[in-house]
What does this fold into?
Amino acid sequence: MRGVRKLAAASTGYCAAVFASHYLLPEGQLGGALVLCIIVLLSAFLMHGNMRLRIVIFAVAAALGFSHYAVNAGLTIERCEPFEGSKMQLSARVTDYPDERSGFTLLYVKITDESVPNVNATMFCYSDELPNLRPGDEITFTAKLRSASERYGEETDTNISKGVYLCGSVEGNVEKTGLWRASFVYFPKYIGHALHTEIGKVFPDDTSHFMKALLAGYKGDYYNDDRLYCAMNIAGLAHVVAVSGMHVAFLVGVLQIVMGKTRRAGIICILLVWIFVVMVGMPLSAVRAGVMMSMILLAPVLGRINDRPTTLSFALALILLANPFAAGSVALQLSFGAVAGMFLFASPIYAAIDGKLNLPRLLAPIGNYISATLASSLSVTVFTVPLLAVHFGYVTLLAPVMNILCLWAISVLFTGGFIICALGLISAPAASFFANILSYLVRYIALVVEDAVKLPYAAVYTENRYVPVWIAASYAAFALYAVIKRKKPKLTVLAPTAVCVILLIGVFSLTARDARNDDGTIGIMNVGNGQCIAVTQGGSAVVIDCGSHGVIGNAGNMLSSYLHAHGHDTVDCLVLTHLHKDHASGVVRLLNLMSVKTLVLPDNAQDTSSDGMLEGILAAASTNGTRIVYITQDTNITAGEISLAVYESSELGQRSESGIMLTASVGEYDMLVTGDVEKTVERELVKKHELEGTELLIVPHHGSKYSTSTALLSETQPQTAVISTGYNTYGHPTQETLELLRKYGAEIMRTDEQGRIVIHISAGG
It folds into this structure.
């Protein structure tokens, strides 16, 4: 700890303890953690001078961190547990504007009822008759409560990391009872809402969603533009619409140009920065940036030198003091990891790149921009790659180039967008005129990223068995570089970078070889009580259904990561048995993430489509150049060595689930998929088609008692029966179905117990 400031030692100790409590410390083991702190404290007395003092500070701060986390868990999460499943009439205060989604509205409230802990909560409201609500309004309603730390039976940090400890479904109407006396606290929220509204007025429909996310932190409309959303993520530009340090730096830069860099101007900048952070909803990345920028601006006012490690660690400590469960936030981890990487590596990378360009004097500004952008992008990568790999299943390779091509446009949009919105208060026509001009930059960004993500190897998907080795070897190369650099100063950071690139080429080569040599694989994704199946052989890939229900995540994302990781960037054929959400909710996402040659739909697709799903799928297919085939009769389809016998079943049953059934064959190995058909249709299927010798049965309707008839099992005699199921309220799979499968000697496999199920087929089946 030599050279580490006392405040940094305290902040680091506290933060380390909070993260350890969240991810490593078993529940109720506070005593053991405090004993460890005491041991570290006592060991300090073996040291001398400043080292002893800093270890003491670290140990005491760590003890406070462990204790603070435990106390907060008791005051929030544990206090809320008794109310799970309760139906109660509640009083609450609205803390943000209602968020309208498809079919429901999210209400963000702080419960003020005496019978329930005074905590933040998110309520799902399905009523069409909500009163006009804004932050500060007092309301009453009846709701059925549930824990915010759990979703679909899985633990999640999404809510508690934001300080939300209860969720619930509103039953009946919401009644507005008055306005909170201190409603002026929400003034920044009012400004943010006004900005959001103004953006919608002056910017065209095709660009307003992007500008709302960029300027006001409102992402509802941006998420609905699935194609752009996916492209921005894969291109490594998701951070530009996640209000963060870049936006705060832009804001401070503009303010300092206007007001100068005096101490008084610095204080005003701090005030305006925090109004902006609150206005955009206080995302953790923006809070981090606000704290750090405040410390940087305050340093000359207080006569202190700004110290980067101290600033970074103290900013993290302040956030965790306010909410220790923020340690589970992916956004927080990525934000601090990115800044740490920039602090450590941006300068040497910039020096290495800038020294090699040697551009003419007139082009020097362009060279500086390229060098600075590359340096920041590559340095950010150092600490964020493992986090991206763990949380998202891929690492983008396009980020450095995309940042060079787009960041200049983002800076213009950010500054110009605010100016145009201010102009809109004076002259709406003038604001609309300039907004239309500025919108060409948004379209430029969309064009660049949507074309770029189509390039082969735009990202590295980490489910690949070679990728963890690549990541470990890359970090080892940089560590070795750091050691050798001391003895050989002329060695540049480009050397370990070259090693990383060479190893990456090896990863792609080995993955392509494995794909070519694949004799056949069937992957049944873990998508909850939904269905998503991938069949691959050699370079061919067929997908059957792509929907999820009762699981955190989108089936399209899961399937895309799985296929990309195993060397497939194209789906030859996507077959949808029917268009219910649990079988088709991820199709649009898959169409936007991968090239799908042919989409096969049942002839009665319109009848089985829920919530306008068919329209969205057809639009995405048209945009991405996917051919549509409707099945009106039994059809055979071939993709490489994969053959499909597709059975048209809409005439066989009366239920809307009847659509497509099929047998997928790889060599001599046969898999039968029947979607959600019921026993009546199964019996007709057995009469009409030869199904004897089916090795694998995807159990119909997730194990429902209304499916999986004795007629089907006696005919197929499957060796293996896979049930794609997860969290549900239907009782799937039923005990009746399980016993029947055992009776016929099938080996039962379940995605809710075993996760993703992958069956490898040997040559010849």
Observations:
- The first strand starts at residue 87 and ends at 94.
- The chain has a mean pLDDT of 87.
- The CA atoms of residues 39 and 385 lie 34 Å apart.
